[in-house]
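Supplementary Data S3. Sequence and structure tokens for construct A.
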Amino acid sequence: MQILFYFVVVLHVIVCFFLIGVVLLQQGRSADLAGAFGGQGSQTAFGPRAAANVLTRLTTWSAVIFMCTSICLVVLFVRSSNAHSVLEGGPSAPASAPAKPGK
């Protein structure tokens, strides 16, 4: 069970870095306006529309994998630690007396 946990952690970290890179490679929404005034927005390897589609799909799939690995990590951690709640087993606060009426 520990090998599976460490495998999912490594996969999660790789997906995190990939997701950061893909998001940083995407152009902003105003990139088309910059291309109209002589910017290099239209000189991409895949063309302006194809690059956006590829990067959008990569972002979507890496986000889905990120969420799945996050859920798997939580499930694997709870199963290995036998803890059911964060509040379970902690010191309980003493019950306070009601406030006395003021003047």
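Construct B, processed identically:
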Amino acid sequence: MKECDVSKLDRIFERGAHVLTRDHFPVQLESSPGAPPALMVMGNEACLSGPTVGIVGTRNASVYGRAAAAKFAEAFAKQGITVVSGGALGIDAAAHEGALVGGGQTAAVLAGGLDRLYPAMHAALFRRIASQGCLLSTFAFGTQPIGYRFLARNGTIAMLSQIILVVEAPARSGALNTAQNAADLGRPVFVVPSTIDQLSFQGSHALIRDGATLVDSPDQIFEALDLQPTLNFHQESTAITEVAKRILDALTVEVKRVEVISQATGLSPDELLAELTFLEMDGKVIREGGGYALVP
């Protein structure tokens, strides 16, 4: 091995990377057929010793999808559930962020070596994940995250998760591969739905038709894990923030376009859409014809 390669490895191990062998695997991974012989870990793998839920979905996520992933992940984190995902753009990132905001733990399973973090724009997110959970890889240092390795990564996510939650998967999506891996392992698959005209949810709705469970509240996941919720999700979600109140005050039962609501509230379109998504999920507003209105 070249001297420079040895130096890079030394720095990685100095930052806390270590090898986890099967003798120390979490139960759900150790008992999975096809489990890898070892994992490379950055952070504290003890976060995987309790209940785990994998959250997966498309990289090209909608505001609704990202908000749903973050909302579910935050609720899981507050319940002491570790959120497992793949560190990718879109739904994965929203899930990790939601868990971190909820003050809980999260694990990112990577498709390359721990010294080849992908995507590079998530470098800061990966550091936070490692400090509040762990980064994991079945691949050796120096391995580039390409092609089939993402499918292998999906299989590892399924093995590490007691339940898989699919959020926004189009007809062709790696999330469907993860869901299939979970089903093959006998693990429950739950799916967040959307309206029938959303192409980015076609794969999600196909999973529901094929027997996956439609979910609209984290409480359903808690029940599947035999956990007693310490917080009432619906009661907590109905608490009105100042921003939400400003939006509700600007709405009527007549549909208003986003730009009109933005002008009335002084909120940026991105911030407004995220808040409207939460309010829609809470049943306070409805979306219709490119605009929003109060629920009659």
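The chain has two domains: 7-231, 238-294. The longest helix spans residues 63-78.
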